[in-house]
Amino acid sequence: MKPKQIKHLNRVAMVFTVALILAALPVRAELSLAGVFGSNMLIQRNQRVQVWGQSAPQATVHVRFGPRQADVKAGTDGAWQVSLAALDAGGPYELTVGDGTDTVTLTNVLCGDLWLCTGQSNMQLAVKETDPSEQKSALIDRPNLRFCNVAKTASAKPLTTANIRWRACTTDSAREFSAVACFFACELLKDPALAKVPIGVMDSSFGGTMCEAWIPQPALAGFRPSDLQDSMFGIKPANLYNAMIAPLGRTAFKGAIWYQGEGNAGHPEIYPSLLETMIGEWRKQFGEPGLPFLIIQLPEFASLWGDHYWSWIRESQAKVAKSVPHTGLVVSLGTTDGFNLHPRQKLEIGRRAALLARRLAYGEKIVAQGPVFQSATVTGSAMRIVFDTEHDGLAGAGENGVQGFAVAGQDGIFHFADARIEGDTVVVQSPEVPQPETVRYAWEGIPLATLSNHSGLPAAPFRTDSQTYTDVEVQKQPVTRRVATPAYEIEINASGMPTSLVFHGAQFISNEPGTAGGGSIPGFLGPRALGEIHKDGPALLTCSDADVTLRMEFAETSMNWTIQNHGKDAITFQLALSPLVKVTGQPETGAMTLARGTNAVTVQGFDSLTDTPTGPRLSCQVKAGASQALSLTISH
Length: 636
What we know:
The chain is an alpha+beta fold. The chain has 4 domains: about 80 residues, Sandwich (Immunoglobulin-like); about 250 residues, Rossmann fold (3-Layer(aba) Sandwich); about 80 residues, no CATH class; about 150 residues, Beta-galactosidase, Chain A, domain 5. Helices cover about 15% and strands about 35% of the residues. The strands form 7 sheets. Strands 2, 4, 5, 7, 8, 9, 10, 11, 12, 13 and 14 form an 11-stranded mixed beta sheet that branches. The chain has an 8-stranded antiparallel beta sheet with strand order 28-29-30-31-38-35-34-33, with no helix packed on it. It has a 4-stranded antiparallel beta sheet with strand order 15-16-20-19, with no helix packed on it. Helix 7 links the parallel strand 12 and strand 13. The longest helix has 22 residues. The relative contact order is 0.07.
């Protein structure tokens, strides 16, 4: 063997020997806190402070939080947990953890009241997506208000850590945070009794999810597999609990707010059992059997959702609030027009939740909810309905009395009834039902229901019958806008999208449902709604939401549309055409001709043409922060 080869082999042997020595040396685990801990966080006041994390096996860990401190020895797996004596509201403090080698320090930590805010997309909806008039009350720097976001993810097994971010309330952080949670916290801080108490709100929500996704797997064993549904994005039951609740460990909370039910609307009969189970399991994990739980009842909504209208899921939510101790129902009727699955009006919901929290969690003797149904008695041809008003009385009667009541006789067919207030009772009757047996109130997707107390808080929907679920409704429809010239007619629906486009009597737009017809901006949860519609001039119309604006200028034989995207993500605007329309030209040429019979329209600005089973589809992508101009001009 040559000397160079021997030298090379010696070098390889030395490297291998060093590697074996290093592999045999013990690896020191890095000192860390659980993911729920971070600078700017808020820790629940007046409860023992649980702090936990990882270190080297059997290391002695010293924990100091403000004036409290303690030592604890880590287990053989490096896990450690310490319990410190409770603190009153105050701060800011530092939370320091050391093991003699490493030190972790968290700064700007407050002690106050922490609320867990969870559910699906209507809890997730951010302040920036609400009505501009509502945003003003939230977009203020509040050092005593802390926001926490739990990363949206799922897991097949329970996790011990998660990506969790804490921030102080600033104009920028509030804009991106859950609107219901933010408005709720801001309303609490208006309470003189809480003015000096720091408030924290933790958003652990995920759009499009079912209740069963938030329940630990062992607790689901009592349900039939056929009763459990996957959430959107293929998320299995228990998988959101595993990734977004389990990592919270023994975090102490003042209470929880649950805004969910849309996903389970198709199976209202099983929802009470699911929600009761979830509440019980969370209370068990957090070590608080009486943890206050606020359930936000779903507001007005017109469409079938999961083959049922929302009357039935509202009833299921009310059953849980009535049967489970230390829970309350936040009635959200009267906060939206009912035509949007994700209504932008969230301030009033936050205010009502804060009122109920002040009574349920803080013990304040205030009027915190509307009239509560107590009993119904038949008196001749009328029914007398008694409410618990908490001495706040009944209100809501207009020129036509109180609206929203319907009565039925033995045939079970309900007729709207006249209603009048007498003290804490409402007397209802209908000439169509001379012998009433049952009564319903606000039992529609978008009920015209006016009963409230003198504080303006609405009564919750209720019924005294036991009929099985039926879904027949005579619904009002959202307002459409129509523009007409001698050459064309166009209709724009309440979502700010063209649904009909007629040139010289010929329809050019497909009337298929969903994104297969008319104009649309597809999104994860369905077509985007540009529901803020304003007539800015005799021939100008603007349709917008928080991030996108569609501006339409109308001339006698042409239209100019401009799509402005103020958001952070690109969007696609598409126009689905009638299958009777023939398209010539290509988007690359800059102009295309749409023809139907002898009628032709020249269009510009679209960058894609797709043939679909229901007809041609034009589309254009609008990048974040950009705009796109579209034009339609009659050729003949």
